[in-house]
Amino acid sequence: MRSTKFVFAICFLFGLTAAKAAGVRNFDIPAGATGPAIRLLVWTPCAESPQEMDARGAIFFAVPGCPVTGEKLPLIVISHGRRGWFGGHHDTAAALADAGFVVAALNHPGDTWRDTSRTDSLSVLVERPADISRLIDYMLDGWPDAPRIDAQHIGLYGFSFGGYTGIAVIGGNPDLRKGLPNCATSSLLACKQLESGEAPGQLIKPDPRVKAAVIVDPYPAFVFPEKNLKRTTIPVQLWSSDPAQNADGLSGCCAAAVKQGLPVPDYHFVANARHFSFLATCTLKEAQANPAVCTDAPGFDRVDFHRNLHADIVAFFRKHFAESANP
C-alpha cells in the first residue's frame, strides 16, 4: 500500500460534467519543520473508463495514471474520522471528482487504522487542523498539477473527528483547557491530559482559504462554545446520523450539539442512519472484518443513501463555487 499508486472512480454519473470517471493517485507531503510526513490520495476528473481495483479489501473503480481533465478546478479536502484512513470516503471523493472537483484526502499522522499512537490525544486535536493547512499548501504549491486548481474555491468535507477538524479549520475555535464542561465525564484521552494540567502545544489557527464546508457528525463537539461557533462565516452543510440508531454511546453521533451555534447551516438529519453509514459501502471482505462499521440499521440502504448524499454535496459546493470553470 505504501508504494502503490492507484486511481479510483464511481459507476454512476451526475451528468453535469464531461468527466467519465475519477482518477486517483498517491502522493506524499514530506516531513518538515511544520510536521511529520503525510500520505494522501488525490482524486481528479478523468475522461477514461474505470477498471476494478482492490485496496485494503475495498473495491474501487480506477483509471491508473489518468490525466487530469479540466482547468480552474475547485479543490475539496477530506478529513477522516478517528482511526480512519484516506480511502474511507472513497465513493464520496470519486463522486466529487466525477463532478469536476479535485479532491485530496490525507491520513492524519498518529490517528489512522495503521497508526493509533496518538488517537484521542490532545496533540491530535491540535495538529489535525494544521494537517489540513499543510495539505492545502501542498495542493497549491507542490502537487504536480497545482496550476489546474482554482485557489479561490477550496472546500472541506469532515467526518466525526474530521468534523471536529473541519469546524476548527473554518474558525470554530475549540476551547481546550482544564475544567472544560463535559470533559470530566468523557473517556477522551485529551480530556484526561487537560485535567492533568497539560496544555496545547500550539495555537489552533483557522484557514481562511476554505470557503465552504460539509461537516458530518462532528466529535468532540463539546469543545466548541456556541459563541465561538457563531463566529464562523462560511457556508456549512451539516449532516447528522440518528441518535436512535447510536444508542451504544458511539462518540461521533450526532450533529445537534453544533447545529444551534453555526450560523444558518444547511442541515440534514438522516433518519435511521448510524454514524458509520456515512462511510463508503463495504465489500463482503470488509463487512466480515469489521461488522460494526459495515452494518446499517434494518431497512437502511447505504448505497441509495450515498447516491442522495453525493448529489446534495455536489449541489452545495456547486452553489457556492459557481464562478469556477468546470463545476
UniProtKB/TrEMBL annotation:
Gene3D superfamilies: alpha/beta hydrolase. Keywords: Hydrolase, Signal. One of its GO terms (molecular function) is hydrolase activity. Residues 1-21 form the signal peptide. It comes from the Bacteria. InterPro entries: AB_hydrolase_fold, FrsA_esterase, UCP031982_abhydr. The keyword rRNA processing does not apply. SUPFAM superfamilies: alpha/beta-Hydrolases. PANTHER family: DIENELACTONE HYDROLASE DOMAIN-CONTAINING PROTEIN-RELATED, POLYKETIDE TRANSFERASE AF380. This is Dienelactone hydrolase. It comes from Bradyrhizobium denitrificans.
